[in-house]
Design the sequence.
């Protein structure tokens, strides 16, 4: 039996009908750019999150770029992020002219390690005005931790470090829409924990558009206004440009499709969690837990609202001992879809060679890149398909 890594065709007729109706409505009124469809989606999204402002953008990448532009981050500034993630985060920082400063990840969670962040910041000097300076003399303005694979970063610990050094956090919430964080102050929603954030609606995301789309999120109304201007070439009044922005507008068609799909999101996230639970049972029964590491789920024994801590955008296991690549090939030959997120950490990417990093600079990220393997977890995945995946791994590792 073949098992796809992902299948968008299994969301069900109810979803297909809702999406078709939304798309036909837009084709009917022909209001393709901004307007009521975009406003309605933005309102629904911020209501879903339970606060803040949502500004629809053409992609998650453009949402991040617009946020950095709104914060006037550029030459002479430095932004801290992690090397083990999708390229977009570091790519946007580079495109503003700012320096990317990498901070290593926690080996258990794959996300920014608060202790590494603390020692990185503690090793930096301040200028005469009290600004923290990177090793290259750029002013450290922002920290961008990434909620990776559908789990939430340790925001209490990261927030405490950021506050100690007086630096703001921007959450990369591209992979976490609907995720909750069990903070010391109570239950919080990922994406509106820090003052600014962004999400991606790339089609394979838990809430996916019919193409590219994203949204910037922020708590401050003034910032929201700035972002709306920046996404539309810095205009408020047509052809009068207050600032330089870009064409970062979400399509009305995408906004309508996403609005139709949003009511299903919590159900899909719960299905992904149920699939993760099924994997745990199957891997345990197969006696594989000494040969691979399952994704960490610190709150899995608690109530469902707390278990929202993980929405399993990806189900990523870890296989040590140099066996990952051979296992992936074995599974591919058996027509079982898997993926490696991410094979080359960002500090070793060719385009960032100018930063002067070498192998060994961020060992935890480098190790993760060698050992992680994503398995099918999408809503609609069948029990027998999960059994096939686990049986394939049993054979592949024996
Ligand atoms: C962690 C992370 N950041 C940023 C992005 C960029 O989002 P988009 O693909 O919508 O531009 C993605 C999406 O793939 C992502 O996974």
Sequence:
């Amino acid at each position: 039996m073949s098992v796809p890594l992902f299948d968008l065709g299994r969301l069900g007729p109810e979803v297909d009908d809702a999406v078709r109706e939304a798309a036909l409505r837009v084709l009917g009124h022909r209001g393709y750019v901004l307007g009521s469809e975009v406003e309605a989606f933005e309102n629904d999204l911020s209501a879903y999150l339970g606060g803040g402002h949502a500004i629809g953008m053409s992609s998650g990448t453009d949402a991040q770029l617009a946020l950095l532009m709104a914060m006037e981050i550029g030459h002479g500034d430095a932004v801290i992020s992690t090397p083990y993630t999708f390229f977009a985060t570091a790519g946007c920082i580079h495109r503003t002219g700012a320096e990317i400063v990498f901070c290593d990840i926690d080996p258990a969670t794959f996300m920014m390690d608060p202790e590494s962040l603390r020692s990185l910041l503690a090793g930096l000097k301040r200028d005469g005005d009290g600004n923290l300076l990177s090793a290259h003399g750029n002013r450290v303005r922002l920290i961008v931790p990434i909620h990776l694979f559908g789990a939430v970063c340790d925001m209490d610990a990261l927030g405490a470090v950021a506050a100690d050094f007086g630096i703001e956090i921007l959450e990369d919430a591209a992979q976490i829409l609907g995720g909750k964080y069990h903070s010391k102050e109570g239950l919080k929603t990922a994406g509106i924990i820090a003052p600014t954030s962004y999400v991606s609606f790339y089609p394979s995301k838990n809430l996916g558009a019919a193409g590219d789309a994203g949204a910037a999120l922020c708590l401050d109304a003034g910032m929201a206004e700035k972002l709306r201007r920046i996404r539309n070439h810095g205009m408020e009044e047509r052809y009068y440009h207050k600032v330089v922005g870009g064409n970062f507008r979400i399509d009305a068609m995408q906004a309508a499709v996403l609005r139709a799909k949003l009511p299903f999101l919590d159900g899909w996230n719960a299905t992904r969690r149920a699939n993760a639970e099924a994997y745990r049972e199957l891997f345990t029964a197969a006696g594989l837990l000494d040969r691979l590491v399952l994704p960490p789920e610190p709150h899995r024994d608690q109530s469902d609202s707390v278990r929202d801590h993980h929405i399993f955008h990806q189900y990523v296991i870890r296989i040590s001992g140099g066996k990952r690549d051979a296992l992936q090939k074995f599974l591919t030959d058996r027509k079982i879809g898997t993926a490696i997120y991410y094979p080359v950490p960002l500090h070793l990417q060719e385009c960032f060679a100018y930063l002067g990093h070498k192998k060994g600079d961020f060992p935890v990220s480098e190790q993760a890149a060698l050992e992680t393997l994503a398995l099918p977890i999408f809503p609609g995945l069948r029990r027998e398909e999960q059994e096939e995946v686990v049986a394939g791994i049993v054979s592949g590792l024996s």
In short: The mean pLDDT is 96.
